[in-house]
Amino acid sequence: MKKIVLVLTGSLNPPTIMHMRMFELARDFLHSAGGIQVLRGIISPVSSGYEKPGLAPAAHRIAMAQLGAGQTDWVEVNSWEAEKPEWTRTISVLKHIDQHVKTKIDPDARAMLLCGADLLESFARPGLWLDEDIDEIVGTFGLAVVTRQGFDAARFVHDRDALFKLRTKITIVPEWIDNGISSTEIRRALRRGCSVRYLVPDPVLAYIRQHSLYDIIPPIAPIPL
């Protein structure tokens, strides 16, 4: 039986219910496939050194990720990447967490990158990923790719020789309930004064309001009838 720890990287700006659902979907699918035991999930928010426009400070994103993970009994946050002043390549993050997995969780377990189909397709974006990093991420650690509306993960793997030769290392996890939730849309909704309740975990929303993140605008009061 292969032992796996799922690792979700990214901005988590903010974490949404879809980030947490990805863990559940991937664990259920891998277990149902047989021969794999998912021991734990780990969230690794990106460093502030990534310098993405609108990126909240790492300390806030770590705190929000911890609040989201706190609603489960098997997902945790690893802050090593987020606390570094500079951006760290994903392969380096996976190697660090894999070592953490082997020393702190189970010496026979290994890390596996959990991502959405949008991240998978970013492998084709010129200058964004090193070819050798993609080979090592997929070939050594493996991918669990959750499908997403508007993306065809299976076709993307089929059409690219580098990924097709490593297709046995890629597990495509179907999400049958169409869900377009994204952190980008959450931030936009907050700036428009729209409710995002039930789109992000309640403790995360409370944190956003408490710290006035994302230029949040109070919702417009309803017109009295």
Describe the structure in your own words.
This protein has 10 helices and 6 strands, in the order βαβαβααβααβααβαα. It has about 220 residues and is of the alpha/beta class. It has a 6-stranded parallel β-sheet. Helix 2 (about 60-70) links the parallel strand 2 (about 35-45) and strand 3. Helix 2 packs antiparallel against helix 10. About 35% of the residues are buried.
Give the helices and strands, then pairings:
Blueprint: E1 2-10, H1 17-33, E2 36-45, H2 58-69, E3 75-77, H3 80-83, H4 90-105, E4 109-116, H5 117-121, H6 131-141, E5 143-146, H7 153-159, H8 161-164, E6 170-173, H9 183-191, H10 202-210
Helix pairs in contact: 2-10
Keyword list:
single chain, 225 residues, alpha/beta, six-stranded parallel beta sheet, 10 helices, 17% strand, globular
Task: Indicate the low-confidence ranges by residue numbers.
Answer: none
Average pLDDT score: 94
Query: What portion of residues belong to β-strands?
Result: 15-25%
Q: What is the distance, rounded to the nearest whole angstrom, between the alpha carbons of the first and last residues?
A: 62 Å
The main β sheet shows up as:
6 strands, parallel
How many beta-strand elements?
Answer: 6
Structural class: alpha/beta
Which strand order does the major sheet show? Answer: 3-2-1-4-5-6
- The helix/strand order is EHEHEHHEHHEHHEHH
Helicity, as a percent range:
40-55%
| Separate helix tally | 10
Q: What would you call the shape?
A: globular
Q: What oligomeric state best describes the polypeptide chains here?
A: single chain
Report Rg.
Answer: 18 Å
